[in-house]
Specification:
Chain A: GO terms for molecular function: iron-sulfur cluster binding; oxidoreductase activity. The complex is a heterodimer. Chain A has eleven helices and five strands. Chain A is α/β, with parallel strands linked by helices. Chain A has a five-stranded parallel beta sheet with strand order 2-1-3-4-5. In chain A, 47% of the residues are buried. Chain B contains 14 helices and twelve strands. The two termini of chain B are 42 Å apart. Classes of the chains: A alpha/beta, B alpha+beta. At the A-B interface, α1, α2, α5, α8 and α10 of A face α1, α2, α4 and α6 of B.
Chain lengths: 249, 423
């Protein structure tokens, strides 16, 4: 029997789900031949509570999302966090710099009491996660790689070295040498340094490598006359939930 | 007549979380609500204190479907605040990227999300077996839009290269030539898409509710990222005066704000654009509209998707024209110089589903002091609710499943981007 796959969205822009399915016709047919998609609200009306693999998009930012993710965790044999919001909390965690009351009053004014919000957090802060597909958005090829690994019951081979490695392979001039700042030295690779190759810099959307060499990264900053604070503001865009503190060590 | 209770939790085949709630007894409607339950996201607060160079990167994350629209509105707001005018080349590239946005989003909506409603399917997946040719074509069109965006912006979802004042990297001329050939073939695909829509059109519910239609309007072209705000009830308004149009307010059943202008609600999106600017469509698109029997003004919201099919043809045509202009003039590296200054800037574009507004106030250092974003679906929520109020009583004698399905189809017709509307 084909494994049953479900997609669920929490607080997010829903771009990861759509990008995950930005496949060629052959890939679509291959995927549909290998799995049965039983739950995919954005694409499909029928739903089922019987599934094996759950892809979770988005972070947890509302009280009611907690029992929902707990119920999904209970059902799923494999739970995969899809995209930066699910993996690190992503941009949603930028709001954590403000108190919930201040946010609700600021945006909704007198109607603030209609709505609620809690500290935004990644999925792993609420339930255990089995696999991560990182990035904002993740690449389609990595999505397929993780799906294949999940189907085979194996751990996906996701890079655990910094973006700098891929950036060298791409033949880019170092962002620091161009007079900019970049979070590539501590960010997990797997994107082929797409942002730097597009003439920009790394914002760290894939989160930290497992054992970031923060001392070396600080040396790089010192060499170019930059301080940690100058770069942390940018690092916080995707990593303000938990990983900023690790960088400050 | 029996009691009717309909509760659709998390409507499917739309972006984001919304519910439909209807109660009636003795043939009398007691309640019909379009409820938006999406989590509030607070992007306007996230943007505070951010340097201009990171602003469009963050604000594009409001939406995964129309992130190019958010990027464009955001860049135009910042450029307005700093008094920056783009070069012709930078402007043409921005318009070309915008065509990719419209093309991808409209194909997704019309052929993947709406078509199953008309063909009695729960999703596009069973249609692979029954309507394989059309689905293969739809995948091909979507892939082309993605590739065009990749050539220009690094990727389709959350573009990388468009920056304040220009581009961080120019596209490769050969890649543009290749994609032009595919666009020419895509013109045939877009016309086939129109024919598919035409074959489904007899099934479109007969429902008319004239309302106010609001969109950007430009004297020179069918407006997507240029022009002034225009209303079908009369008048044009400068971009900076958008709040006179939007007049946001809250309702308890929606975590997205509502808007209203001359009437209790107004509509934005493809049909609003068509109603206001159809005479400016490019030739193939005009022909497509004629073949569909479309003549402005059209007051049936179910025709939003039909207008999207017409716009799809327009965008493919427009993209070919722009590439021809770019290749004829040659691509040249241009230095992007940005001098931040304190001030306010408003950027307004036509996202695939309607008028999208970013309004920023900057300090001298180029950091955001305050931000306001108004999303097309936010402007359409009230229109959806007022359509419900008019449509539901007229169909109460139908079987419950049909009532539910018609209301679901109505919401889908608007192509809502709900998580975007709760930004």
């Amino acid at each position: 029997m084909k494994p049953k796959v479900a997609f669920f969205d929490f607080t997010s822009c829903e771009g990861c789900q759509l990008d995950a399915l930005n496949l060629d016709v052959g890939e679509v047919l291959g995927l549909l031949g290998a799995v049965e998609i039983v739950n995919f609200r954005e694409v499909k009306t029928d739903r089922s509570d019987d599934y094996d693999i759950a892809f979770i998009e988005g972070s947890i930012t509302k009280e009611s999302e907690i029992p929902r993710i707990e119920a999904i965790r209970k059902q799923a044999k494999v739970l995969v966090a899809l995209g930066a919001c699910a993996c690190t909390g992503g941009v949603n965690c930028l709001k954590n710099a403000y108190k919930p009351d201040e946010l609700l009053k600021g945006v909704y004014g007198e109607c603030a009491s209609y709505y609620n919000t809690i500290l935004a957090r990644p999925v792993s802060a609420v339930v255990p996660v089995d696999a991560y597909i990182r990035g904002c958005p993740p690449t389609t090829s990595e999505f397929l790689k993780v799906v294949k690994a999940a189907l085979l019951g194996k751990r996906p081979d996701i890079p655990n070295y910094p973006v700098c490695t891929e950036c060298r392979i791409a033949g880019n001039v170092c962002v620091f040498q161009r007079g900019g700042t970049c979070i590539g030295p501590v960010t997990r690779a797997g994107c082929d340094a797409l942002c730097v190759s597009s003439g920009r810099f790394c914002w760290g959307c894939r989160g930290l490598v497992d054992d970031p060499n923060t001392n070396s990264a600080k040396d790089v900053l010192a060499r170019y006359g930059l301080t940690l604070d100058q770069i942390l503001e940018r690092f916080k865009i995707y990593n303000s939930y938990s990983e900023v503190s690790q960088c400050q060590k | 007549m029996p009691e009717i209770k309909i509760k659709v939790n998390q409507l499917t085949r739309v972006e984001g979380h919304g519910n439909i709630h209807l109660e009636a007894s003795d043939g009398k409607l007691e309640k019909v609500l379009w409820e938006v339950t999406e989590s509030p996201r607070f992007f306007e607060w996230m943007l505070k204190g951010r340097n201009y160079d990171d602003v469009s990167t963050i604000s594009s994350r409001i939406c995964g479907i129309c992130s190019i629209a958010h990027t464009t509105a955001s860049l135009q707001a910042t450029e307005a605040a700093f008094g920056i005018k783009l070069t012709e080349q930078a402007w043409l590239l921005r318009k070309l990227l915008y065509d990719a946005e419209l093309l991808e989003s409209h194909v997704l909506h019309v052929l993947f999300l709406i078509a199953p409603d008309f063909l009695g399917a729960d999703s596009v997946i069973p249609l692979v077996a029954t309507h394989g040719d059309v689905i293969v074509m739809a995948v091909r069109m979507k892939k082309l839009a993605y590739n065009l965006a990749e050539i220009l912006a690094g990727r389709k979802t959350h573009p990388i290269t468009p920056i304040v004042g220009g581009w961080s990297k120019l596209p490769d001329a050969d890649a543009l030539r290749d994609v032009r050939e595919r666009l020419v073939k895509c013109l045939d695909d877009a016309e086939t898409m129109v024919a598919v829509v035409k074959s489904l059109a007899p099934m479109i519910p007969n429902f008319n509710r004239p309302t106010e239609y609001i969109a950007l309007k430009d004297s020179k072209e069918y407006a997507f990222i240029t022009g002034k705000i225009a209303s079908s009830d009369g008048g044009t308004f400068p971009l900076e005066d958008y709040q006179k149009i939007t007049n946001e307010f809250c309702v308890p059943q929606s975590s997205a704000k509502y808007t209203r202008h001359a009437r209790a609600s107004y509509q934005v999106g493809a049909l609003a654009r068509f109603n206001l600017s159809s005479e400016q469509l490019l030739p193939h698109a005009k022909k497509a509209a004629a073949s569909l029997g479309m003549k402005a003004p059209i007051h049936n919201p179910f025709f939003i998707s039909v207008a999207q099919a017409v716009e799809t043809v327009h965008c493919v045509e427009d993209a070919i024209n722009i590439i021809d202009r770019l290749l004829a003039r040659g691509l040249h590296d241009e230095e992007v110089k940005v001098k931040p200054r304190a001030g306010r800037g408003v950027g307004i574009v036509e996202a695939p589903r309607g008028m999208l507004i970013h309004d920023y106030t900057y300090n001298d250092a180029g950091e955001i002091v305050s931000a306001n974003c108004i999303i097309p679906t936010g402007q359409n929520h009230a229109s959806i609710q007022h359509d419900f109020d008019a449509l539901a009583p007229a169909i109460l004698d139908k079987p419950v499943d049909e009532i539910r399905h018609t209301l679901e189809m109505l919401v889908r017709a608007y192509d809502p981007c709900i998580s975007c509307s709760v930004h």
